[in-house]
Amino acid sequence: MSEDARQAVVLTHVPFEDIGSLQPVLESRGFRIQVLDAFHACREQALITACDLLVVMGGPIGVYEPEAYPFLTDEISAIRARLEASTPVLGICLGAQLMAAALGARVYPGTAGAEIGWKTVQAASDLIPGWFKPLLKPGLKVLHWHGDTFDLPQRAQWLAKSDLYDYQAFSVGRHALALQFHPEVTASGLERWYIGHAAELSQKKISVSALRSEGQEFAPLLEKAAKQFWELWLDYIL
What we know:
This protein is α/β, with parallel strands linked by helices. The two termini are 19 Å apart. Helix 3 (71-84) packs across helix 4. It has one domain (7-237): Class I glutamine amidotransferase (GATase) domain (Rossmann fold, 3-Layer(aba) Sandwich), CATH 3.40.50. Helix 1 (22-28) links the parallel strand 1 (7-12) and strand 2. 33% of the residues lie in helices and 21% in strands. The protein has seven helices and twelve strands. The longest helix has 30 residues, at 208-237.
C-alpha cells in the first residue's frame, strides 16, 4: 500500500459494534483503517483531524451523559471541528446522535421506547439523493438498535424515517452523513451483539433466538444493498 493511501479513523464505543460491511469496501479503495477507542481518542486529535474519513460508531450510552462519561465532550468537539472544516464524517447510531449534538441539535431519550429489531426505513421526502436509495429498496429491512433520538439539525437534509422515529438519517453538504440505524451489520458479526447487549435484551424481554432468526433472514439482503450504498456514497463524498 502506498504511503499516500487514504486513511479512515473509526471511533468505537464498544468493540463488537464495528464497521462490518463497510470495511471491505474501504479496503478495496486502498484505505488504511485505524480503529480507536473513543475514550482515548482525545489523545489522537491530530490523527482525527487529518484523516480522510472519520467514522463514529454506536454504543449503549447517551450523548446527554457527559458527567458520567466525560470523554463525550472531547468527542463532540472533535466531530464539530471536522464538520466545520467540511471534512468527511460518518456517524452510526450513537455516532449519528453525537453528530446531531455537534451541530447544535437536541439529543434525548425517545418517547416511543426502544427501537430494536429489523424494520424498513422510508424516504423523508421526494428529494432523496441517488446514493441513499439502495437502503430504501422495497421490502429491505435494516437493523435498528437505539432508545435515544434527536432533533434534526438546522443545516441538515432529512433523508429517512421509520414508523417509530422520524429522524433516521440526515446529511450535511457532501461531507457528513448520520444514520440512526445500522446498515453496516453482517449476520456473522451480529453474534457478538447478542452477547454484548445480553443485559439489555433480557431487561426488555427481547428474544435472542428471534433476533438471530431475523438476522439470518434479513442481514444477507442488507449486506448486498449496503455494499451498493457504501460504493455510491464514497463516490459522492471523495
